[in-house]
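debug: dumping io for the single-chain case to check the tokenizer round-trip. Nothing else runs in this session.
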Amino acid sequence: MTKRWISLMVENEIGVLARISGLFSGKSYNLDSLTVGITEDNSISRMTISLTSDDQTFEQIKKQLNRSVEVIKVVDFTDVAIHMKELMFIKISGCTQQDMIELTHIISVFALKMIDYDTDTTIIECVQTENKNNDLVRLFEKTFPNRFSIVRGGGVAIEAIKLSELL
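debug: decoded output
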């Protein structure tokens, strides 16, 4: 099983998200992440999908997506150099003054952002790769056990620029 990334350009119409996600659930494929957003063209949306599958299943998924009327383009990012980020919020409760000092240090080292706080609770915003966010979760599990919660958004990805394309 391999981690896969796929990007779809789809028609920006009501029900497209439900039909595409229904295609996955109807075939019992599990998605790790699904993010949808409008593109520079208001009539087109980009879906970024992350899943774990074997080669045969993934080929079947791509073929089914290509047959879908709403799908304009399917791009497989699995073996392509990409820039990928995932949004994650971490809420830490029961913070002491020493915890806040530790948090300030972590925020500085990992280039995070404190977006809200009060006397004993804070919310941190992380816009990192999935692997870096996983590392941060492990760090918070050790540093603030049983005192934090996380909310993870889907990842977005774009193909990296190849130097040969610039020349």
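debug: round-trip ok. The two ends are 37 Å apart (CA to CA).
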